[in-house]
Specification:
single chain; about 180 residues; alpha/beta; Rossmann fold; 6 helices; about 30% helix; binds magnesium ion; binds zinc ion
Length: about 180
């Protein structure tokens, strides 16, 4: 059985920027993320990034630019260690009413299927309610980080995440204990 981590991109791995990360120049890693990814890999975890990129649907950047951005991020991770990163992207806007945009669990379920994961042993880490909702629907354990939009999210008793941490780095350090 593979071990993997499902993780949101903006606000968790990267600083969120007001109007989407539209170019490599706008990439800002949240401090310590690259080394934390390397620690995950050294423990045998595959990293599956599940991200809503409505900026593509809004024509603010295209899929080729997004691939360049993800290639750049992956190169930065590789500078700290080898491993597998898979990108699961919803390029649609809310108005498109697609089936893949979080809080839909579709892209998480795709990762679960592709890597033969046991969802009950798999974490979904995000900074928004929609990440937690998607994780719960996919049967995963859920963790909210306080970076990005994390501080602003309000959860009721029934939809709250299993874990709250300060950052992705904290999550990796908590989970790997
Ligand atoms: Mg986010
Ligand atoms: Zn979609």
């Amino acid at each position: 059985m593979n071990k993997a981590l499902l993780v949101d991109r903006d606000g968790v791995l990267l600083e969120s920027v007001p109007d989407y990360v539209k170019s490599i120049e706008e990439i800002r890693f949240i401090p310590g993320v690259e080394a934390a990814v390397a620690r995950l890999w050294s423990k045998g975890y595959i990293l599956c990034v599940v991200t809503n990129q409505a900026g593509i649907g809004k024509k603010l950047y295209n899929i080729e630019t997004l691939q360049e951005i993800h290639f750049y991020i992956q190169e930065k991770f590789y500078e700290h260690g080898r491993g597998i990163v898979r990108w699961y992207v919803c390029p649609h806007t809310v108005e498109d009413k697609c089936s893949c945009r979080k809080p839909s669990p579709a892209l998480l379920q795709q990762a679960i299927q592709e890597f033969t994961l046991d969802p009950s042993h798999t974490w979904m880490v995000g900074d928004k309610k929609s990440d937690i909702e998607a994780g719960k629907k996919a049967g995963c354990k859920t963790c909210i980080v306080k970076t990005g939009e994390g501080q602003k999210q309000i959860f009721s008793e029934t939809n709250k995440p299993d874990l709250v941490v300060n950052s992705f780095v904290d999550f990796v350090d908590t989970m790997l204990v």
